């Protein structure tokens, strides 16, 4: 059975020079890392934008732990 990458959780940063909009990251830090499903990545960027993927995880808990540690710095 082929690996289904679309079901994985990814921790991403917005494209270089861009910030998240309010629906993706409603905070005072619009460049912070967020956890999303890989299959939803195209819905959080404008067409042609490149996300920076910091990590790929099998579940939300692992993804959230990494995201929170990354955002602490």
What is the gist of this entry?
The protein is α+β, with helices and mostly antiparallel strands and 73 residues long. The chain has one domain. The protein has one helix at residues 60-71, and strands at residues 9-13, 34-37, 52-57.
Walkthrough of the structure:
The chain is about 15% helix and about 20% strand. The chain has about 70 residues and is an alpha+beta fold. It has one domain (about 5-70). The chain has a 3-stranded antiparallel sheet with strand order 2-1-3, with helices on one face.
Strand order of the largest sheet: 2-1-3
Uncertain parts:
none
Order of SSEs, N→C?
EEEH
The class by helix and strand makeup works out as alpha+beta
Number of strands: 3
Oligomer: single chain
Number of domains: 1
Q: Mind telling me the C-alpha Rg?
A: 12 Å
User: Kindly, what is the distance between the CA atoms of the first and last residues, rounded to a whole number of angstroms?
Assistant: 39 Å
Q: In what range is the share of β-strand residues?
A: 15-25%
Mean pLDDT: 79
Total DSSP helices: 1
Q: Helical percent range?
A: 10-25%
Per the principal axes of the C-alpha atoms, what is the gross shape?
globular
Note the main sheet: 3 strands, antiparallel
Features:
73 residues, alpha+beta, three-stranded antiparallel beta sheet, 3 strands, 21% strand, globular
Which helices and strands, and how do they pair?
Blueprint: E1 9-13, E2 34-37, E3 52-57, H1 60-71
Antiparallel strand pairs: 1-2, 1-3
């Amino acid at each position: 059975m082929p690996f289904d990458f679309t079901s994985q959780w990814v921790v991403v940063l917005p494209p270089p020079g861009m910030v998240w909009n309010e629906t993706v990251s409603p905070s005072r830090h619009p460049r912070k890392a967020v956890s999303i499903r890989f299959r939803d990545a195209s819905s959080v960027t404008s067409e042609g934008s490149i996300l920076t993927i910091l990590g790929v995880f099998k579940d939300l808990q692992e993804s959230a732990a990494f995201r929170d540690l990354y955002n602490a710095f």
